[in-house]
Design goal:
single chain; alpha+beta; Serum Albumin, Chain A, Domain 1; 2 domains; seven-stranded antiparallel sheet; 19 helices; 36% helix; globular; disordered N terminus
Length: 535
């Protein structure tokens, strides 16, 4: 696999970036510049991550915003810390209410799938615990970008245009503020066209001045509450005021001499850990690229059906995280991987779908951070005059009362966004992540195996052609995925579908640190407008 990987066609010919004093990798060059400016002003990796995340809410509103959720893994002072800033369902959100409103399943757009957004609280919590610079200084660049405007990038335009047509299909007054805020002359902004939002700038300024409380208890909370009451939504100021992000212990699995870390459920990072754990149980891979791909796809499928069946809030999960990551259970699941593709079914461990960024500073601190609206701009709901585009995370809830992820008031849903981190022998190697809805755990498996098994550098790992399991034996592949490998996988029973576009295969960033020299090596996503800036 190692030699064949060198001959895979790549969507970019970018070289890996190297630095010694710091590094920022994001999906938008302007946001990466913001993070780097913060580092050069004396901020640490946490400060740079917060500033970049706030800037991304402006320059890539197609994927995230002030109304997003967020997760983070932070390495600081020789220890890993996890932050879960995904918000719960409103207290008024019940299965009975949804069914009374005529829904057999959770809607994807509109007011009803909006849960409490966690991103502003995540920024404030990270700053309070680990930041060096004043919180208002970190959001100031994003305020300026929103106020003065910036030139829309090509991939952002593509996603913007898709959302414009999606929301145009709704004949509902609640969607009008989205068009008032994000459309230019009745269309999505074009590549290179300037877009600005004074409302977005005003909201960011209020969040900066109050360390996030304006969003949850103040003027912005009042505006959100009033809009939801006017248009028949369920979210209320009391739901916002009750929210606090949760500090959590990351969970891990062993893979090729490294520890791979993810945020525990309700995040879906456990899927990636299960897949990597199965591959670890199967031992070292050979040199047959078809066998290697087949094993990785099958392990991912088996992990994913487990995750979709069991993952919800950790306290409500049965089986437990520990049972699902147990070595004997992963060995049992790995034993199901044979010569042919299988139609995966979840196991029983009880015996008897974004923007991602990575930052690092010269002191060894590193951050893996992700925030997301879920689907594109999210719910399509924008609070008038604020620039606040609200996520639609509640769409992942089930309205089946017997399902593990059944909707309930105050419950957090299964979450697709997952930051990752690598350590070895108790030392930080670095943050990694691949955004893109249900592609994310699959992207984690692919970049980790590319780096730790195939021995590719971060940029080469991100450049590799990707595959994406969707259901049953169906695997979608990118347009530049080698035909000979696709045909060989088809002979093993996989239903291979080659897509014309690469945007659905995730967009990642990676920064690795050599523990001996402190040198940083980073890669950025060729499938988006990304940048990795070294210092």
């Amino acid at each position: 696999m190692q030699h064949d990987a060198l001959y895979y066609p790549s969507p970019s010919r970018r070289m890996a970036a190297f630095g010694t004093r710091g590094m920022v990798a994001t999906s938008q060059p302007v946001a990466a510049q913001v993070g780097m400016q913060i580092l050069q002003k004396g901020g640490n990796a946490v400060d740079a991550a917060i500033a970049s995340a706030a800037a991304l809410s402006v320059v890539e509103p197609t994927s995230n915003g002030i109304g997003s959720d967020a997760f983070a893994i932070v390495w600081i002072d020789g220890k890993l810390h996890g932050l879960n800033a995904s918000g719960p369902a409103p207290q008024a959100a019940t299965i009975e209410t949804m069914k009374a409103l005529g829904h057999a399943n959770m809607p994807l757009h509109g007011l009803l799938p909006v849960t409490v957004p966690g991103a502003p609280a995540a920024w404030a919590a990270l700053s309070e615990r680990f930041g060096k610079l004043p919180f208002a200084d970190l959001l100031a660049p994003a305020v300026a970008l929103a106020e003065q405007g910036y030139a829309v990038t090509p991939v952002a335009h593509q996603m913007w245009d898709e959302s414009f047509h999606t929301y145009s299909a709704y004949d509902d007054a609640a969607f009008k503020p989205w068009f008032d805020t994000f459309a230019i002359e009745g269309r999505a902004p074009r590549p290179g066209e300037r877009w600005s939002s004074t409302g977005h700038a005003s909201s960011l300024r209020a969040i900066a001045e109050t360390k996030g409380r304006a969003f949850y208890e103040g003027e912005l909370a009042d505006k959100i509450d009033a809009f939801f009451r006017e248009h028949g939504g369920l979210l209320r100021k009391a739901d916002l005021a009750a929210f606090q992000p949760e500090w959590v212990e990351p969970i891990s699995t062993r893979y090729r001499g490294h520890d791979i870390w993810e945020i525990p459920p309700n995040g879906s990072g456990m899927i990636a850990l299960q897949a990597l754990g199965m591959l670890e149980q199967m031992g070292a891979e050979g040199r047959d690229p078809v066998e290697t791909l087949h094993r990785r796809i099958e392990a991912t499928k088996l992990a994913y059906v487990d995750g979709l069946n069991y993952i919800t809030e950790r306290d409500a999960m049965q089986p437990s995280v520990e049972q699902m990551l147990a070595g004997d259970y992963l060995a049992q699941r790995a034993g199901l991987i044979g010569e042919k593709a299988v139609d995966p079914v979840h196991g029983n461990p009880i015996m008897g779908g974004t923007v991602y960024l990575a930052t690092a500073d010269g002191e060894g601190n590193m951050v893996s951070f992700i925030q997301s609206n879920f689907h594109g701009f999210g719910s399509g709901i924008v609070i008038p005059g604020t620039g606040i585009s609200l996520q639609n995370r509640g769409a992942s809830f089930s309205l089946d009362a017997d399902h593990a992820n059944a909707l309930a008031p105050g419950k957090r849903t299964y979450h697709t966004i997952i930051p990752g981190f690598i350590t070895r022998d108790g030392q930080a190697m670095g943050p990694f992540g691949v955004m893109g809805g249900y592609m994310q755990p699959q992207g984690h498996v692919q970049v980790i195996t590319a780096m730790l098994e195939d021995r590719l550098n971060p940029q080469a790992a991100l450049d590799m052609p990707r595959w994406k399991w969707t259901k049953g034996k169906t695997v979608e592949v990118e347009p530049h995925f080698p035909d000979h490998l696709a045909q060989a996988l088809a002979r093993r029973g996989h239903h291979i579908v080659k897509l014309a576009d690469t945007i659905s295969f995730g967009r990642g960033q990676i920064i690795l640190r050599d523990p001996a020299s402190g040198v940083l090596c980073g890669g950025t996503e060729p499938r988006t407008d990304g940048a990795v800036l070294p210092w």
